[in-house]
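User: I'm new to structure prediction. If I give you an amino acid sequence, what do you actually give back? Let's try with this one:
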Amino acid sequence: MMRRRAAHSLTACVAAAALIGVAACQPAEPEKPAAPVEPPATAATPVAPPVGYACESGATVEARYTDAETVQLAYKGQTYALRSAEAASGARYVGSGVEWWTAPREGQESATLSRLGPDEQVGVAVLERCSRPTPTGAPIPQALPGQTTAPASGGVLPAAAPCLGPQLKLAAGAGDAGAGNRVRNFSLQNIGSQACSLTGYPGVTLLDGQGRPLTAIRADQSPGSYFRQGQAPTPVTLAPQAKAWFELAWSVVPNEAMGEKTCPSVATLRATAPGDTAAIPLAFAGQPCGGKVRVSPIRAEENPQTAT
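Assistant: Good question. You get back a string of structure tokens that encode the predicted 3D arrangement of the chain. For your 308 residues, that looks like this:
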């Protein structure tokens, strides 16, 4: 009986195979899991290598030039994000309260880290002066598109580092007076052997006859000048022996509302280049009233209204 049933099943299988194929009589194979799909490879974001600058104080500033417009600085445990800004030469960046200015000089890349002034645009106090050797073929950040040069002599000059006090000579120029106001031009002459650049306002301190700072008189930055109000600072590149100019303006009328009856006497004017701390003294007599003098940005030419 069992044999007849087995024969019958075999006959049925053969018949089915004839209709749907041989596979109908074979046991079904278990389904295989689908092969895992590899995620598409994504390109890693390139990380800018750090560039180390050795500073005169013994500190190190580490810079990462992430692209053509930005740089990240690491200094004394802090990180600063800066953006490109107008420069007379080299490459200049501002942001996070500081200014970073680099330029090639005699086989090295010099750099200055400065604290920004109240306008957050111009460095007013040098924090560090740094440098690094420049390997042959190594790129040095240069002026970017939009960074302009305004040479005092009218010609195009090679890249120039910021002017420093020892490179400059301070002298008094022409002046003017009227309606209780006084204005005087002062020149900053490049007495060095290489071109240098100035951008922004000079630092000005007034001293009495004993060489003591007159702390009751502050020097206010005044956009433009006495004759040209509202003009923003522009870069000035000085060739050797060339001059740049700024104005000092003040009142000679005592401010009675402040209880002022007499005004302090000035014996010496002491100036510093933008971003520098080296003082440049000049004997200068005056009696500013009202507790302040107004300082113009540095410009490339003497004002014709007061020129002699």
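You can read the tokens as a compact description of the fold. Here is one thing that stands out. The chain has one helix and 19 strands.
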